[in-house]
Amino acid sequence: MSEFTRILIFQCNKLGREAVLVLTFDDSKTPGIYHTVFPTAFKVTAFGPEGAQQFMVTYKSQLGFTRAQIDGGTVVPASTYTPINVGQKTILTKKSVPAIEIYSFSNPEDITPPTGQMVAQNSTDGKENIGVGFFASPDDRPYQILVFEGVASGSSVQSEFTPILGGYITADYKENAVLRGQISTPLLFKEDLVQLPQLTYWELEYNAASGTYAIKRDLTG
């Protein structure tokens, strides 16, 4: 599949109550979800009770592996990463020089025979966290959206990432937080981004009588 971009605009007008929207790639079919691989709070934004508001989210299909570092429960911007395509493999290594350790990924190479996976091998001398992310721009660091935690030396992670985005209303998470378990509030939004057109609009609504939220596709936008 050729590279693609998806733009999602979440909006509301006179919502009536403050709401915090959390977006995450937490599809329950991801192998090892909440055991060996953990999603992050990809985007977090607050909507106020009054006025018209919009929040734009952009996803691009160029994926990458990262050496994921977690500080206080939050994944920090990656300093070691590489773009990768489906059917390729890369190797994470560590080189020690005086007073510093240098980590790097090898240039990705095609897997033989071809597979539908992306593979990252940990060839350092210890456990490492390996992240999966995407590049919003070739010149930017990747957004890290999944973390394989504690990958042993000599072991590999295999990802068949499908960009299924989930949306929740909850104030329990900050952006880039590593999610250790399923979010407890109702899932309001679940979409495979591959199946959407390039630009879509989504309306956030609050029902005061029931005290519930909903996210619905706005086909007039």
UniProtKB/TrEMBL annotation:
Domain of life: Eukaryota
Name of the protein in question: Uncharacterized protein
Organism this protein belongs to: Amanita muscaria (strain Koide BX008)
